[in-house]
Write a structure and sequence with these properties.
Shape of chain A: globular
Distance between the termini of chain A: 49 Å
Bound molecules: FE2/S2 (inorganic) cluster
Number of domains of chain B: 2
Helix content of chain A: 25-40%
Number of helices of chain A: 19
CATH class of the largest domain in chain A: Alpha Beta
CATH architecture of the largest domain in chain A: 2-Layer Sandwich
Distance between the termini of chain B: 48 Å
Number of domains of chain A: 3
Strand content of chain A: 25-35%
Number of strands of chain B: 5
Oligomer: heterodimer
Largest sheet of chain B: 5 strands, mixed
Strand order of the largest sheet of chain B: 2-1-5-3-4
Largest sheet of chain A: 7 strands, mixed
Radius of gyration of chain A: 27 Å
Chain lengths: ~750, ~150
């Protein structure tokens, strides 16, 4: 491994010093003179006709400046358009777009109907109470399987099937005829919420040029286009200023406050702040898709997989959002990181009158992991084989093809991640009744970077200051994972600077080079490479300038510790400031704007799934020990080890932090979280009854990072943000299953479900 | 209504409408934005501040209740330009990711260490159980608090 000075170390992040002082100006922390307060009136029904809407009393309330309805929206349709070659990929889908404000029909509880702006939050709330809406309830459909019935109520005119994808390889009938054993299970996962601690928030105003400026907590600065479309403005007339986010996890990937806020600012011509309450956040933003996954898996006596047949149905809720793409991730990952010669997967995403489901960390590849890893443990039990050995026999290796036909060009190191995670659990302990102990692993693979046909691209600018320090400009939102500080570390490494000598300024749709979304575990790959390219270009100029000053060949010059010197002769070192000044004196550039284009590929075949959906994947394993109380059914996770191939670690503490946070978010999903719905209406839109893990609910997370150097990111890095969570729910389900001696197939694994499993025959 | 209290070590005289919570007072009245709104329901702990050394939920307590008391917010942890050891420890150990829970966490931890300068892992996890964090999984937060404990070996 090459020697790095900055890469792989854990310098405290620049943002961390601000955060421990409580100083970052999050989206809700800025007030502007004359600012109004926004408030949204939402539908209490999951499926209804708006029979009458009267805003007169609300408008008449003193201090109310605007009460807007669908009639006030210039183009009342939120399109989820992804750039790139998407036409073939969306062919055949029934893409129901969501209105900014519902006109005559509401399709889910929480759908926005009226937007209010008033002088104070209290007046805005008072006006909301005065809005009169008469709803006529309509029949709705609340179960994705029921929604597939042709006689089910239609959520949209085009029918309830939003999108189907299919995966075919080999001949699945032959695969099952070659199998000595076949295991079959149906796995079920619930709607869950991101629960970032900062709710959806934004502030907007109109600047001196007449440009609508929105300062929003978002993962996607490109939503300025959605706002411009809604308002029918030229795209350049709406600017989005990014802030540090109080968490995102995919929930701030879809439009949240942007369009409603833009509408209120544009109509009132006044600054407006819009903050969703926690309850609104629960009912108002996209959720993780519930899945029903029926799996049949066949293997020979010695444990070689012969066939997988799977049927996946996901609940998209009331609108399309990103459901077709979430489903595609499920399709591609459906057979797990294993060689399977014969595969048949049919995947369908369905409209219902449940909450809209969209992006959430892992994006469809976590639900399938619960199923494919559950199947591996079920097979091991049936074959009376060690479950790790069974996995090892079937793990993908370099040169093997995924079920999509994509050949792996690098070694996934799955065995190593699994063996090391397992060893990390330590010596088994002997349980004492009524506690049963279960241990298990789940291995996984998760794409990082976008689908190949989006033709993903990111730009960045790196420049030197006269004092020898460097500036990075790159519009990559920082969701808390340390995106910004990684860009500084990459620059510092290339330019021979200390991280403290590099500052990244701003993230803005119009003022900083476009870097694309902080989603899909793409920023280290995309912005990281763009910054790397720009820094290398600057380095090239600095080396030439230093070589001239040192009377040496550029190839003999080294940059380190803020100095330039001839290799082997650090005594005669120039400060970076003098190199920069020398470069400028010679007319050399000391800045560069560069981009990185991810490799692209045509859309996969929608009927067979064959093709290259993603450029690369991150592989890793969770090993978990649980203690199950046989009397109460309560599960406690006592050990948790995560081992992943990070490719290359950029900031060690940040990388570990991703693994630790992903693990614990997974424990919540596995054991406690579920949006309880009754006919589409949430029964627990509060943190009191939608519980997420506290410090007492989880063990310390042990993390192990491999560095193959095989990733496509800077210095061979892969992405960790989403992959860090993928195996968690499967590992918990497998560990609980091993403790109780029966397969647990439904999340969350509540005490009640565990008691039921304990009562059922193994 | 008029309010007199001690805020981050200094006397503070201010006005607040009767229905304001401490969170409203800090953010809207005094422009101290380090204290965060995460739920307004007393569950998440992002609004945690210290009143006479004890952690309180600023979103639940009415401003009138802190009349005459000593309030400490995240802005008051730094003294004479020197960070509190907890702040340094959090920054150096990667205990702040998005940072939204961090002010509340720091104050909950501050109250713990004032009472118990040599806490165990379990003491720390217990003391922070009312402060949610969705990013870190708590591992580095717990480590950072232990490392900042004055009685730590
Ligand atoms: S905002 Fe006060 S506890 Fe959540
Ligand atoms: S660091 Fe994001 S919630 Fe704790």
């Amino acid at each position: 491994m090459p020697a790095y000075r900055v890469i792989g170390t854990s310098p405290a992040r620049a943002d961390a010093w601000e955060k421990v002082r409580g100083r970052p100006i999050y989206a809700g922390d800025l007030a502007v003179a004359g600012m109004l307060h926004g408030r949204i009136v939402r539908s209490p029904y999951a499926s209804a006709r708006i029979a009458r809407l009267d805003t007169r009393a609300a408008r008449a309330l003193p201090g109310v400046i605007a009460v807007l309805t669908a009639a006030d929206v210039p183009r009342n349709e939120l399109r989820m358009e992804l750039p790139g070659r998407m036409a073939e990929a969306t062919a055949g889908a029934v893409l129901a777009t969501q209105p900014a404000l519902a006109a005559d029909r509401v399709r889910f509880q929480g759908e926005p109907v009226v937007a209010i702006a008033a002088e104070t939050p209290e007046i805005a709330a008072g006006a909301a109470d005065l809005v009169e809406v008469e709803y006529e309830e309509l029949p709705g459909v609340y179960d994705p399987l029921a929604a597939l019935d042709p006689s089910a109520p239609r959520v949209h005119d085009g029918g309830n099937v939003l999108r189907r994808w299919h995966l075919r390889t080999g001949d699945v009938a032959r695969g099952f005829s070659e199998a000595a054993v076949v295991v079959e299970h149906t796995y079920r996962t619930p709607f869950v919420d991101h629960v970032y601690l900062e709710t959806e928030t934004g502030l907007g105003w109109i600047d001196a040029e007449g440009v609508l400026v929105l300062r929003v907590s978002t993962q996607v600065l490109e939503h300025y286009r959605d706002v411009a479309e809604i308002l029918q403005l030229p795209h350049g007339r709406v600017r989005l200023e990014g802030t540090y986010l109080g968490g995102g996890f995919g929930g701030k990937e879809d439009v949240t406050v942007e369009c409603l806020l833009g509408l209120l600012v544009w109509k009132t011509r006044r600054p407006v702040q819009l903050v969703f309450s926690r309850e609104e956040s629960f009912i108002g933003h996209g959720k993780r898709h519930p899945y029903v996954m029926r799996y049949r898996t066949g293997a020979t006596r010695d444990g070689t997989l012969t066939a997988v047949e799977a049927e996946l149905v996901s609940d998209s809720g009331a609108y399309a959002a990103l459901s077709p793409w979430v489903l595609l991730y499920s399709l591609v990952t459906a057979t797990g990181p294993y060689r399977v010669p014969h595969v048949k997967v049919d995947a369908t995403t369905v409209y219902t009158n449940n909450p809209v489901a969209s992006a959430y960390r892992c994006f469809g590849s976590i639900q399938t992991c619960l199923a494919y890893e559950g199947q591996m443990d079920a097979l091991a039990a049936t074959l009376a084989m060690d479950s790790l050995a069974l996995r090892e026999k079937n793990f993908l290796r370099k040169g093997d093809a995924l079920a999509t036909g994509q050949v792996l060009e690098t070694e996934p190191r799955l065995s190593e991640t699994m063996r090391r995670a397992w060893a990390g659990l330590g010596e088994p302990r002997s349980p004492r009744r009524p506690t049963r102990i279960g241990r298990a692993v789940a291995a996984s693979f998760t794409p990082y970077g976008r689908m190949c046909w989006t033709r993903d691209s990111a730009s960045a600018w790196v420049g030197m200051e006269l004092d020898g320090t460097a500036v990075v400009r790159c519009a990559a939102p920082d969701v808390g994972g340390g995106q910004t500080s990684s860009l500084c570390a990459i620059t510092a490494e290339v330019l021979g600077l200390d991280v403290a000598q590099v500052v990244a300024v701003g993230r803005d749709s119009h003022f900083t080079p476009r870097a694309g979304t902080t989603t899909a575990t793409r920023q280290l790959l995309m912005s990281g490479n763009a910054v790397l390219n720009a820094a290398r270009e600057v380095r090239h100029h600095l080396l030439a300038a230093a070589a001239a000053l040192l009377e040496a060949a550029p190839g003999d010059v080294e940059l380190a510790d803020g100095h330039a010197f001839v290799r082997g002769a650090p005594g005669r070192a120039l400060t970076m400031a003098s190199v920069v000044k020398g470069a400028i004196a010679e007319g050399r550039p000391v800045q560069a704007l560069e981009k990185y284009d991810a490799p692209s590929a045509p859309t996969i075949d929608p009927l067979t799934g064959q093709g290259k959906a993603f450029n690369d994947y991150t592989f890793g394993t969770h090993a978990i020990e649980v203690e199950v109380d046989e009397e109460t059914g309560r599960t406690r996770v006592s050990r948790f080890v995560a081992c992943f191939d990070a490719g290359r670690v950029i900031n060690r503490a940040s990388a570990e932090g991703q693994l630790e946070g992903g693990a614990v978010q997974g424990l919540g999903y596995a054991l406690m979280e579920e949006i309880a719905l009754e006919n589409g209406v949430s029964k627990n839109p509060h943190l009191v009854d939608y519980r997420i893990p506290t410090s007492l609910d989880v063990p310390p997370i042990e993390t192990l990072l491999l560095e193959s150097g095989d990733g496509l990111g800077p210095f061979g890095a892969k992405g960790l943000g989403e992959p860090a969570m993928t195996p968690s729910i499967a590992a918990v389900a497998n560990a609980v299953s091993s403790a109780v001696g029966a397969r647990v197939t439904q999340l969350p694994i509540t005490a009640e479900r565990v008691r039921a499993a304990l009562g059922s025959p193994a | 209504m008029k309010l007199e209290l001690t805020l981050n070590g200094r006397p503070c005289v201010t006005e607040a409408p009767g229905h304001w919570t401490v969170l409203d007072l800090l953010r809207d009245g005094l422009n101290l934005m380090g204290t965060k709104y995460g739920c307004g329901e007393g569950v998440c702990g992002t609004c945690t501040v210290l009143a006479d050394g004890r952690p309180i939920r600023a979103c639940l307590v009415l401003a009138a209740h802190v009349r005459g008391r000593a309030l400490v917010t995240v802005e008051g942890l730094e003294r004479d330009g020197r960070l509190d050891p907890l702040q340094t420890s959090f920054a150096e150990r990667g205990a702040a990711q998005c940072g939204f829970c961090t002010p509340g966490m720091l104050l909950a931890a501050k109250a713990l260490l004032a009472q118990n300068p040599a806490p165990t892992v379990d003491d720390v996890r217990e003391a922070l159980a009312g402060n949610l964090c969705r990013c870190t999984g708590y591992t580095k937060i717990v480590d950072a608090v232990l490392a900042a404990a004055p009685g730590a070996r």
